[in-house]
Amino acid sequence: SPVTLVLYDYFGTKKQRDSLCLCLALFCFLGSGVSHVLTLVLQELSLLCKRDVNGVGMLYDLLRSRWLQALLKVKTSLCVFSYIYQVVELLREAPQSAEIKELRRLLRAPHLKALLSAHDTVAQKDFEPTLPPLPDNIPDNEEAMRIVCLVKNNQPLGATIKRHEITGDITVARVIHGGLADRSGLLYAGDKLVEVNGVPVEGLEPEQVINILALSQGTIMFKLIPVSDRPVSNQTTLYVRAMADYWPLQDPAIPCADAGLPFKKGEILQIVDQNDVFWWQARKVSDLSACAGLIPSNHLLKRKQREFWWSQPFQPHLCLKSSMFACILDVFPGLMSLSITAGFRRSMRLCRRKSRTNQQSCYTRCPSSCYSALAAPYEEVVRYQRHPADRNRLIILVGPAGVGVNELRRRLIASNPREFSSAIPHTTRVQKSYEMNGREYHYVSKETFENMVYSHRMLEYGEYKGYLYGTSIDAVRTVLDEGKICVIDLEPQGIQVARTHELKPYIIFIKPSSISCMRQTRKNARIITDYYVNMKFKEEDLQEMEDSAKKMEAQFGQFFDQVIVNDNLQEASEQLLSAVHRAQDEPQWVPAIWICSNTQP
Ligand SMILES: Nc1ncnc2c1ncn2[C@@H]1O[C@H](COP(=O)(O)OP(=O)(O)OP(=O)(O)O)[C@@H](O)[C@H]1O
Questions:
Q1: Is 406:489 a contact under the CB 8 Å cutoff?
Q2: By residue range, what is the domain housing residue 194?
């Protein structure tokens, strides 16, 4: 504050300045809550006292002195100047140390006097806007017409207008929650505008009225006929996860682009108004203090999506396509000794990688996941905290091949195998001599495997050399029933399948760092391909990783609860560990259907 700056002229050491600044800060806040401010200052000072800051002990004693306390209790007016002079007088009674003398000299200095007196003059001025006088021709029936004056203050009005389809009247279409009009409590949706700033609006187009409003500075005066049956708001606030991006400025259909709320998929929105069938009002939970904005309603988005869907040329859906799976375990049985489950994962990932180059995708138990994403532009969510007695939430890692999903999962499990475990996969291939049923795999017949697929018990599965491999929901359930945290990795297409009330998965996207960073960090890393167990990362592998990550985020980002950039392996491992614990122990947004229903997914 300016007072602080003045102080700097007078006190030599920084410590002295700091302690006196605290004192001046107190004086500057004298108008309201004096005792409260004093308490805060004393708390602050007591901390400094412990650290033995020079001069602070004296100030602490001074502010705690009974005479000053008593004065502060009775003094509530905002008159710093006269108040400080009472303090100066009272300081005479305080022990006359060098600091007190200095303080008294400072407070009596002419330019500080002038400054404080200026403060008081400004503080006592009334800065409320002067409203124009009411017009003479106000009808007798004051209910019939209302005059509303709003002061714009460089912020939008927070209301939209429209022409009534039948009467042609210009009416308030909606009042934006938290905006200027809403806070005034004077404008309501349905109010009929008669005049704006003295200009009759009859016969004008809404755009012309908006123009008048846009050009108005300071006070705007509306003459309006209030809506007769004002809707009683009985709406409950709803929270949703956006399943798509939305850019109001690019939406020609939005009634007022400036009033739109842009959002990205995955963001949680608080819906505060659903009165309009097509345009809801919402805030982001990350910024609840902001005024609401317009977003397309579920109904409107679905309609748009349907239009978009039908305008696309027919494309057989990727999820419905079959794929070939290769299995490195069958090619390199030596890997088994390293880590069975990790090896399995590699095999699955290799299969996926191979199928991707063939422009095919793996099988997931996909209940037309992409169709359902289209069908639900918003997903209702609630805050959920797992009860300590409940089963742990399933942890799903998703990421492009080679990014380090396997390495991070392996490290997590190795850090505490009693707490973390992965799910044992199923296969129809023959058990090898060194393998044990239920340790490396669950060995089942083709018929059993297919039954599991048909009865939707597989999260993900594939075929290689006539054998089927897959991760079952039963295997996940087994780990969870043991009280452990089950950590699996999944192709993103499988996410929808795993998102059930029972598993309540927490999905972590492992994202590659920039190619230039990976060139450094992956110097000694080895990638496993169909043909090479230990191949150095080539430039195209890094590029493929980056491209694949972008596609995953674009298509499935709305499902990611957490994104971890795997740059430094140690840091990424630590982030993963804390994310996994957060998922179990802290409240998270989850689909409302997981909590509200025991029968639905
Ligand atoms: N942050 C990192 N820094 C350096 N090396 C890493 C990092 N993350 C992973 N690696 C190394 O990169 C290689 C590939 O990692 P990993 O096998 O975990 O990838 P992946 O995502 O599971 O893909 P894939 O399924 O193809 O194996 C391994 O040698 C691993 O040790």
A1: yes
A2: 146-225
State the CATH number of the domain containing residue 158.
2.30.42.10
Within 416-472, where are the H helices? 446-454
Residue 601 within any structural domain of the chain: no
Query: Is this structure's pTM higher than 0.80?
Result: no
| Listed ranges 285-289, 336-340, 372-376, 446-450; the one with the highest mean pLDDT | 446-450
Pocket of ligand 1 (CB under 6 A): 346, 349, 399, 401-407, 521-522, 525-528, 566, 569, 572
**pLDDT score of 302:** 72
| 556 alpha carbon – ligand 1 mean position (Å) | 22
Helix and strand element counts for the chain (H, E): 22, 24
């590029």: which residue's tokens? 543
The values of phi and psi at residue 94, to 5°, are -75, 160
- Contact predicate 422/441, CB 8 Å: no
- Residue 242's H or E segment, with its range, is strand 238-242
Cα–Cα distance between 521 and 562 in angstroms, integer?
Answer: 22
- Do the domain assignments include residue 136? no
What is the token pair recorded at 451?
């039954």
Instruction: Write out pLDDT tens, residues 99-117.
Output: 677 777 777 778 777 777 7
Contacts of 468 (CB under 8 A, 6+ apart): 426, 427, 428, 446, 449, 450, 461, 462
- Bridge-based pairing of strands 293-296 and 199-200 is unpaired
The CATH number of whichever domain residue 280 belongs to comes to 2.30.30.40
In a shared domain, residues 195 and 257:
no
CA of 564 to the centre of ligand 1 (A): 14
- 353's enclosing H/E stretch is helix 340-357
295-318: per-residue pLDDT in tens? Answer: 998 887 777 666 655 554 444 333
Amino acid in the structure at residue 282 = A
| 56 closest CA partner among 27, 15, 102, 93 | 15
Q: Structure tokens of 203?
A: 């016969």
How far is the C-alpha of 502 from the C-alpha of 476, rounded, in Å? 11
The answer to the question of residue 132 being in a domain is no
CATH assignment at residue 407: 3.40.50.300
Task: Tell me the CA–centroid distance for residue 391 and ligand 1, in Å.
Answer: 30
Q: Tell me the sheet residues that pair with 336.
A: none
| Co-location of 421 and 367 in the same domain | yes
Calpha distance 178→391 (Å, rounded)? 41
How many CB atoms within 10 Å of residue 174? 27
Structure confidence by residue, pLDDT tens digits, 280-295: 999 999 988 888 999 9
Query: Based on the structure, what is the number of domains in the chain?
Result: 4
Q: How far is the CA of 546 from the centre of ligand 1 (A)?
A: 14
CA-CA distance, 465 to 329, in Å (whole number)?
A: 12
| Ligand 1, atom nearest to 526 Cα | 29
